[in-house]
Amino acid sequence: MQRDTEEFIELLTGAQSAVFGYIVSLCHDHALAKDILQETNLTLWRKADDFEQGTSFTAWACRTAYFHVLNHRRKLSREQLVFDEDVFDYLAERQEERASGSDLRLEALRQCIAKLPAAQRDLVDRRYRPGASVQAIARDDGKTEGAVSQALFRIRTALQRCIEKQLMKKEPA
Amino acid sequence: MNHDERLERVNLLASRLLDGLASAEERAELNELLRGDPESCELYLDLAETHALLAREHAGDTLAEEVSGILPFAIAGERSAPRKLTASSPMMWRFLGAAAAVVLLANGYVLWQNYGSRELEEEPSHGPGVAVLSRVVDPEWPEGKTGPSVDDAVPAGTFSLRSGLAQIEFFSGATVIIEGPAELDLESAWRVVCRSGRLRAFVPEPAQGFTIVTPEYEAVDLGTEFALSVGSDGRSEVHVVDGEVRLDSTDGRELRHLGAGAAVRATGGEMTSIESRGEAFVDRQKLLELARDDWRSRYAAWKRASEDLRKDPATLVYFDFEEQDPWDRALENRATNRAVGLPAGGAIIGAQWTQGRWPGKGSLEFKRITDRVRLRIPGDYQAMTLSAWVRVEGFDRWLNSLMLTDGWETGEVHWQISDKGQLILGVSGGVNCYSDPVLFPSDLGRWMHVAVTVESNSSFGRIVHYLDGRPVSEERTDKPMPPLRIGDAEIGNWQHQGKGHPIRSLNGRIDDFFILSRAMTPEEIATIHDSGVPNR
Fold this sequence. Notes:
heterodimer, A: mainly alpha, B: alpha+beta, 12-stranded mixed sheet, 8-stranded antiparallel sheet, 22% helix, 38% strand
């Protein structure tokens, strides 16, 4: 495919959330994931010719991202690695398959955030605004990092249940 | 931990991980909980994906800008005027930096080729040694010592040989053949103290000045060849075969200057000229002949031992790499009592025939990233032994294949070497056993024996790695392990079905490879090693 067609730009733009989610699932850190996403985008653009029309752009983008994640993973010491190779590979494979459903999840997530109590929604906002960290929230609120993370854990669990319900409603019988 | 508790724990650990708070123990625990449990993996992925989506939702609507930022020339209508990008913009710098990296990607895998050995390369090229042991014939080392192997670096300090012959190549360029019994002190690459024993030294021009110290004088070689002996009574002889040798007193006075054919005996402070008998000392040609005899007898001993493996009914495949023609592309399975369904051989792709542990012994060289041997072994197994004689030439990649099953389905076995010199055996859905780093730069280019035994059943699993006949690492688990499977697999490479995984090709030679459907005992593995050592 020609890289400077609107169609390619659209595909690339449309896949950003899915690929970002894919990278985060493998490297956990969303600041690092942002950098890896940039590298991946550049590779995708450079190698646009390799993309076969009619195949899944998201899957192709995830496979490209995989190499960039591995590249970063290679720089980590054994102690810094979270997942062993087998677990890592399994997660990579599964998330690539899941990535195409990312848009549905995003839609469900938006509805679920709207349903959160105001205090929880506020904490989510503070946790995920650019430059935010659990450490900063803990400092501002005079709480321990563990306590903040615990509160976020409860919110994530609630969101998770809500998203599942939302997605189930959409699932064909 | 029941199922719900397990998922709850995954939930908590994943949350801490995503918040950047998980400790090393928590990260390891999460890894273990996810391993082999698809439901836990799904939960983790749900949380990670939500985390990512939340981060993007809160990053503002910067998405289109980000994309256009890295694609400055790609936006229709703006090709000639890259928008908002000046050399001082961080995005531009990122673009330029990334562009440089991507050039390497031109043919896909180049990027991955050079990651492997950085840490290894940072080590000194020959360790703390002063020389390399280059050849031995029937060496016997002092009691309780295994002694160095051929091609090992020889450190400074005492070098004792009870009997046999050893050839040492010093980093100065001098080569010394030592006849046991001998007692030396290697002070440096330029200076050796001979307390007793017979030596023959070859000193090419770059090594002129190489000195051997005896109890009564220092023999300084001015090029090129001399023999020297020191008896247990301290009496010494020096015979100049070729070139010149200067004998200095220990305080640096010149005592004698000897030319080719000259010989001197020193005893009790007196020096007398004697008839030269340099030819009585083992020279390089003689040593090579003796070494050849040694190879022949070891080669024959290995062949005899390999007969037992051929006949063992537990042998699934045995590749001895023998009696095959250079044009053969089928690698013959020499197991003679094999069960129905086991293959008659493997398929050689790319890898070329070359010399194995001894001259005349066959071997396959895996060099290019496409080189491999494919094999298919049907069936489920409760236990397995994998064994190979291998000469690794480089730890080129993060993971270097010994044998990998295609893909990574439950029960499948992956045997590989990491770029850190770890031996790794993984059973999909079971456990991975990583040894400590046991291979080092000094192991590159030498023949070594690697083996691993795996036991796997409904109550426990056990993996033991062996290097050169000795166990080096063990992993036990009380969890059930799936039955072991190989199916379609590759020696020296990896074919992952469908996905663009990095290359794991081996850089090295293999000249003996077998898989048994039982776990060999440590004694059996020691025997396999001992009967196949290329030299002592």
